[in-house]
Amino acid sequence: MGASLPPKEANLFKLIVKSYETKQYKKGLKAADAILKKFPDHGETLSMKGLTLNCMDRKSEAYELVRLGLKNDLKSHVCWHVYGLLYRSDREYREAIKCYRNALKIDPDNIEILRDLSLLQAQMRDLTGFVETRQQLLTLKPNHRMNWIGFAVAHHLNSNGAKAIEILEAYEGTLEDDYPPENERCEHGEMLLYKISLLEECGFIERAYEELRKKEFKIVDKLTLKEQLVSLFVKLNHLEEGEKLYRALLSMNPDNYRYYEGLQKCVGLFSEDGLYSPDEIDQLDALYKSIGQEYHWSSAVKRIPLDFLQGEKFREAADNYIRPLLTKGVPSLFSDLSPLYDHPCKADILEQLILELEHSVRTTGGYPGRGKKKSPRQHLCGLCFYWLRDFMLVQHYDRRGLYDTALTKIDEAMEHTPTVIDLYSVKGRILKHAGDLEAAAALADEARCMDLADRYINSECVKRMLQADQVALAEKTAVLFTKDGDQHNNLHDMQCMWYELASGESYFRQGDLGRALKKFLAVEKHYADITEDQFDFHSYCLRKMTLRAYVEMLKFQDRLHSHVYFRKAASGAIRCYIKLYDSPSKSAAEEEDEMSRLPPSQKKKMRQKQRKAEARAKKEAEGKNEETSASGVSKSGKRHVKPVDPDPHGEKLLQVEDPLLEATKYLKLLQKNSPDSLETHLLSFEVNMRKQKILLAFQAVKQLLRLDAENPDSHRCLIRFFHKVSSMAAPVTDTDKLISSVLEAERPSFSQLHGKSLIETNISFLEKHKDSLIHRAAAAEMLFVLKPDKKAEAIKLIEDSNNILVSTSEAIVPVRKWRLKDCIAVHKLLGTVLVDCDAASRWKLRCAEYFPCSTYFEGRSSSAFSKSSEHHISRNSENGGANYTADENAGSLASNGKLEAFQNLAI
Amino acid sequence: MGASRGISISLDGVRDKNVMQLKKLNTALFPVRYNDKYYADALASGEFTKLILGFWFYELGNGGLRIEPCLSLDYDINCSLGVLWILGLCFYVLRSYYSDICVGSIACRLEKKECGAVRVYIMTLGVLAPYRGLGIGTKLLNHVLDLCSKQNIAEIYLHVQTNNEDAINFYKKFGFEITDTIQNYYTNITPPDCYVLTKYIGQPQSKK
After folding, report:
1. Is the CB of B33 less than 8 angstroms away from the CB of A880?
2. Subunit contact B98:A331, Cβ cutoff 8 A
3. pTM of the predicted model, to two decimals?
4. Nearest Cβ partner of A884 from B7, B34, B138?
5. Which of A92, A876, B7, B72 is the most core-located residue (most Cβ within 10 A)?
């Protein structure tokens, strides 16, 4: 380095490098300038100066200097290395890899560059390259532990586990017998565990077992050791030993569900789907009872049997499970039991059980079957969990869809103890389910006001507000819990994705595509950041030897984009782009055109409105500017000022040339990472139909039918696709001919279409699902698509649907089958696709009966129906205020009176 | 007190974060709706005078009741405002509940008499119906009486509707006595007259 310089300058150059490493950038810059004074063209110095400037936030200068340096000295590995570092600092890993490779061509044995390169290759999952680089590092420095391990991990990642094991064994061969020394026992133990898990992964179970037994005393993490051992026992079919070990593990932690599952496997009582024969259930019951006697404090041992028990036994177990938790007042009790509602018979039993408990507590103040004597304590408990039991019952009714009953019950509970915050949140949730989003938001806000220091309640309120499309209010509420001054941006910095998704959805519903896109893309950005975050671990984990965790983390990162939040964000963005494509924002000329068509009087009005809106917007912007400048002054002490978002409303995002191209970008990610989600292929169908990519759309149809052929959306896509194909002009070009021949060949593979016309297919689909509203709606829509003249028939198909009452046993109030969201979808179908206002309003009236709380259908109990009630309340409070001095004591005595009466009783 | 076994009762002051709970209580308890100023005053004066209401925790031993005042009251009695509020929320807690339920409250204010002496006026005292008979009202009142004697406040008084015998008896147990009758005190309820109940602290109590 710096070899071409005279001694004095060479020393200065060393100083630059040292200053860079110790982050004394100013010093480095001075030295660089000193050299450049004498040798203005010295490439390596120019490069180093650039690198130093890069760390001082002078990016553009940095790139210029580094490129200039490289031009002056193309043969220098230093220049290439620096160029690579520069790219790496900007996360341009592919470019950085290229630079490193060039540097290595000049200096193939440079350890530092090799190591940097290997990190990049691991990050980019260039696995063959990673193996090569690691091999080279090991050949160069075989006495380094990290190089052995790195080489092994590289092979493992490159799916060559056997080779990785060989390397680890070779590495162990280089160690002394008394290895490891005291201070490295943990690291060595981790390495051994990694090796054993590798052996297991590669299917060498016997070898893994032997290895484990041989090295047992060297492994520090005894718990993992036991868990590893027991997994090997099961795989080797040593079930008796496995059972013993699982029991030992349970004695350490009797609440670990995986141990129970393992134990069940060992004693031969395990099925994936949770279904057992009566005989097996008896055995399982006995097993759990015996364990339960040993570990009476474990809740897992009491909860798990509820999953497999049936009938009377379930009833008994559930009763025993619920009572103590109810007495204790565990608020999450219902969430805990909620999964059981998926079994209809269990839901019925639970309902009976809860009703019985309620009745008994209401009448006797204690649980049923406990004799008539009631201790004061029982009496108290009765009082105290009065609300909680109601709470439980309420959630029960909510879950079963009996919103009216749930609301009556919760109002009772609120009257009883109006200060329980959870009651308000739960009532909000019920109203949301019942379809009154506005009222739900108002209740959530009431709950929030009762404890302003509770972030959870605050967040729940924000969510409800967003569901009710009150975005501005939600933003204000959310900001209450962010850091002062940082305001809204803070939510983005905290990667608060639920918020961004919910507000994106809300903007989308309101048609504000720019803002919606902004939110969805922000979430997508978070995932890019998470991918980025793994970079530091490539060197750290190899050094610290946390290999199992490291490999697991890499595997997690590989399927990161299949996470449900990413799926939501990506599909949201795609929907935005589709909508943008369908109705592009109007250009100024078009608007002018529209204006000219209006009569003059209206034109004037419009102009005025526009002007007013503009003035308002301007005023707001000014206000905001003042705010930011004011806060800028107060924070001037801080060095780092956050850049202002240049596009706060996402307007620039809307100005994409080809929305479908953008959509395709995210679609590809979805197809790669969430191939088993219906939505992925629905979106793919929509996008590709618009792009006229027939074969890709065809692929989407095939995938949809593979996933769920009976789904109404799948049916829609199938019919629409073949309808479109049949209406296409005869193929002219070669590609068209090719496409049609492919379709010809593939068509027989659809069982739905065998020897039938599309109409017939549609009819047989309808016949198959004639009791289901959503299927009928899909069939009707397709009928209309195929034969637009049969519109009346299509509408009749929908209107003839019956809302069946479903009841599973006599004791229970029957529930109607239609779901609110399906009915709304049908209403939209009637209004926008079939375009029949009369039918739509008939449908609306009918649904208002079924869903009295729904604001969409303007049901009679919804907030849309009775807006006037708010006025009443505000008037009342004014009245109260007027005469409060005189009245304030009236209340105190009223309550004191009753209190006194009770006290007499107690004495 | 047998009835208190297994429960504990704690007292907390009113802050801006939980003032809504007081509103809910008052709405449930009293036939009167207080306007926002009532609550704003309660908060503002509380903060202004740095009034910290002691947080009491009643720990339950084996049958015994131990009372531990964690903080003592510390305020400037000669403050220029002349009016102080003591507001308490009573939380009723069953052991192992994750969240406490607020079930009662007491609100008082300090008044300066012309002679310069200070007295306490009890504005509201109330406990939600299902939680009565547990001694919560007694605790709230005792708390205030205790504070008065610590601060050497000699007089404490309140208004009671003349027909509310239960309340009158309740207060008499604590040594309150009828000292005056005001005609037509109330506007919206009958009878409109009220008694003034007063207790002089530091003097021998006639009834126990």
Report:
1. yes
2. yes
3. 0.79
4. B34
5. B7
